[in-house]
């Protein structure tokens, strides 16, 4: 019982720890990050196509910026 | 910056900023310190305006902007020409729901090395339609989608779902996703041929803001396949002393399962003169024995408020599958046989340039702004154990194959 209580206490402490993490980059410091040139996938339809070009001709697949579809067997 | 009313009337933009509990505490703490009070207020106001005008789709839980893209794509290389249009429309129906639709067409005309040496040149068309819905609930973005692709000898249906959640003061975004593909493989000229090939994909990713100028993304994807995984037209060759040219062909035989893992780490860095540097690395391996490394380097440079230029370099290299050989010693040399050049050892290097021109919509009832975009990429494929059979030489001593491909993407984007 005591072990369970201790575990519960630790769990609650860890949860409260998570919620109290303060952002080290403040909201008003994110202007550069919000610039559209900083997007990983700025033009989805275009990057999706190039992703498909590679998928159809290379053995590797997955973990790309964009995801495509189709058989890729051309 | 303008917003449109129900009757197309231009309204002043209403600035709405989502302020988290952490942000409020931070602001109060700063104010209580009584230092730099005016400067802090000014910076908070500036941040509010910046955050509202420039959305942060990859970092914060907001629905993507309403947008339409019309793309013309063209691939030419190695005897294959593939081109066609792609149309993407993305529209919010409320602050919490958006939908996107993509229609994509490939016109294929192929006389590639595989086709020339073992079959006949062909033309065909592939059409793909996909629908995706996104739901925003507080800091969690859910998505669900379906894609249908069809061509004369291949039908593919893909279902996907996923979510992403912002956490830790919106510096971290966790995303997870699952897709399932149900494919039906046919063979032109052989109505009796019908096979299934199904796959599942499991994805997890973390996007992390590291500094005010640096953001990183770590992602992992596992894909498992089951069914008929060959290309039904391709053959392997084996040494055959009974024929004049010294070799013959037989059908490929692949395993009917495949499992792969891909890990990727990418980062974007904001340079002082307003430009962005992109670096990325992906490691890949699979149960067929293929290992691959991919390096990416990119530079995005807004020359002015109208023009943005892009430069990119990509280096890819893979090792061959365990059951690949350019020339087997005899017929049925092993239980699995492949001579698909995509399963051979090779490298590919891509150099890309792009230009984008932004236009503000003048007196348009429907659109806010446009952009015209042109991207040109050249890819150099160099094979290490796939030989060019169009050139006569004793079997196994033909020159190694290589080819260049040119990829053109021209598209118009409109935000509304």
N-to-C terminal Cα separation of chain B, in Å?
Answer: 12 Å
Query: Strand portion of chain A, in percent?
Result: under 5%
The coarse overall form of chain B would be globular
What structural category do the secondary elements of chain A indicate? mainly alpha
- Looking at the chains present, what oligomeric state does this protein adopt? heterodimer
User: Averaging pLDDT over every residue of chain A, what do you get?
Assistant: 73
- Work out the radius of gyration of chain B: 26 Å
Tell me the major beta sheet of chain A. Answer: none
Q: What's the number of helices of chain B?
A: 3
- Principal-axis shape of chain A equals elongated
Helix-residue proportion of chain B: under 10%
The end-to-end distance of chain A, rounded to whole angstroms, is: 64 Å
User: The CATH topology of the largest domain in chain B is what?
Assistant: Porin
Helix content of chain A: 40-55%
- DSSP strand tally of chain B: 20
Radius of gyration of chain A: 22 Å
Describe this structure in words.
The complex is a heterodimer of chains A (74) and B (416). Chain A is mainly alpha-helical and 74 residues long. In chain A, 49% of the residues lie in helices and 0% in strands. Chain A has a domain at 25-58. Chain A has three helices and no strands. Chain A is elongated. Chain B is mainly beta and 416 residues long. Chain B folds into two domains: 1-54, no CATH class; 63-415, Porin. In chain B, the strands form three sheets. In chain B, strands 3-4-5-6-7-8-9-10-11-14-15-16-17-18-19-20 form a 16-stranded antiparallel beta barrel. In chain B, strands 1-2 form a two-stranded antiparallel ribbon. The longest helix of chain B has 17 residues, at 37-53. Chains A and B meet through helix 2 and helix 3 of A and helix 1, helix 2, strand 3, strand 4 and strand 5 of B.
